[in-house]
């Protein structure tokens, strides 16, 4: 496989901005866990920059494997609907992507083992659930006919990843810490709102054979669901910021982004336009990114 072709594939299907987001997710979880330990919920623990960097790469590797799983499941359909893609034109192949994805598994396992048996066990749990996702839980045809349920079943990987990473810095299967459920909610709702936003289309832009929530639920209900999940995610972030004694600026940024999303979806509801929905999708992605960055900023503001 030529590096140029791999680079083109990554730019198209697993762009650097995605890798950056997953690294931010890792350092956010690491920082919140440090706050929890500083408050006496668990023994203090510091891993040093080298091991933290490996953890960030392990997180990216985990999500890259999920992307490869999706490519395997959707290859035939994507060949019909997106024949121009790097994978579909043969510049990279599924066996090559599988080799890269499973090579990353060794990195994840090694980092998890270095953090302790509980972290290794939770990584194995997340990996096992991802394999169930790859098999579509054995009911793929039934599940694909229920797009929202399909998305929810796959979004549940997020709390498992959060738990895996959190356990590395709390040295146990910690469930009682107040921060962990809030991180679960934030990751689940943030990921689900983005998933909904990216698969909303104006009626004129719908394509046969291409799944969308606006097609499955109807245009208006799909917009309403997206807004509801977006606001719920905003509430989860506000609760986490409150637990961290967040500064007013963090709440202000959150409020402004949510307001921008509401305006765009309100306008799109009245006058369906594909360009407006793509603008709203960018706002939703910004909400997801800034939710982690704001929490990270508050953690560093506490001097952890």
Give structural notes.
- This protein is globular.
- α3 packs parallel to α5.
- The protein is built from 13 helices and no strands.
- The mean pLDDT is 93.
- It is mostly helical.
- The chain folds into 2 domains: 173 residues, Tetracycline Repressor, domain 2 (Orthogonal Bundle), CATH 1.10.357.140; 127 residues.
Helix fraction bin: over 70%
The helix-and-strand class reads mainly alpha
The unreliable regions are none
CATH topology of the largest domain: Tetracycline Repressor, domain 2
H-E order: HHHHHHHHHHHHH
Give the end-to-end Cα distance, rounded to a whole number of Å: 43 Å
Binned strand content: under 5%
Largest sheet: none
Shape: globular
Instruction: Count all strands and give the number.
Output: 0
The total number of structural domains is 2
The CATH homology group name of the largest domain:
UbiA prenyltransferase
Q: Give Rg in angstroms.
A: 20 Å
CATH second-level architecture of the largest domain? Orthogonal Bundle
The chain-level mean pLDDT equals 93
Number of helices: 13
Assigned CATH class of the largest domain: Mainly Alpha
């Amino acid at each position: 496989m030529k590096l140029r072709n791999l680079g083109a594939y990554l730019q198209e299907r697993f762009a650097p901005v995605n890798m950056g987001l997953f690294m931010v997710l890792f350092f956010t979880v690491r920082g919140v866990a440090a706050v929890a330990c500083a408050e006496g919920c668990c023994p203090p623990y510091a891993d040093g920059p080298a091991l933290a960097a490996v953890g960030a790469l392990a997180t990216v590797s985990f999500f890259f494997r999920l992307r490869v799983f999706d490519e395997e499941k959707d290859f035939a359909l994507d060949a019909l609907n997106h024949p121009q893609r790097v994978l579909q034109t043969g510049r990279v192949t599924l066996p090559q992507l599988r080799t890269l994805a499973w090579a990353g598994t060794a990195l994840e396992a090694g980092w998890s083992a270095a953090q302790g048996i509980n972290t290794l066990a939770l990584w194995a749990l997340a990996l096992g659930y991802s394999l169930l996702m790859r098999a579509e839980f054995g009911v793929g045809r039934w599940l694909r006919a229920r797009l929202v349920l399909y998305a929810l079943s796959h979004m549940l990987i997020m709390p498992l990843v959060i738990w895996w990473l959190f356990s590395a810095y709390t040295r146990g299967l910690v469930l009682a810490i107040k921060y962990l459920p809030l991180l679960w909610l934030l990751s689940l709702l943030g990921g689900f709102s983005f998933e909904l936003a990216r698969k909303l289309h104006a009626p004129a832009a719908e394509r046969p054979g291409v799944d969308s929530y606006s097609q499955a639920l109807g245009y208006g209900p799909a917009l309403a669901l997206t807004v509801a999940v977006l606001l719920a995610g905003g509430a989860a972030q506000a609760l986490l910021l409150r637990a961290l004694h967040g500064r007013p600026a963090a709440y202000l940024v959150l409020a402004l982004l949510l307001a921008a999303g509401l305006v765009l979806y309100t306008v799109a509801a009245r006058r369906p336009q594909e360009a407006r929905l793509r603008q709203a999708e960018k706002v939703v992605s910004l909400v997801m990114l800034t939710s982690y960055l704001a929490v990270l900023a508050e953690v560093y503001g506490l001097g952890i």
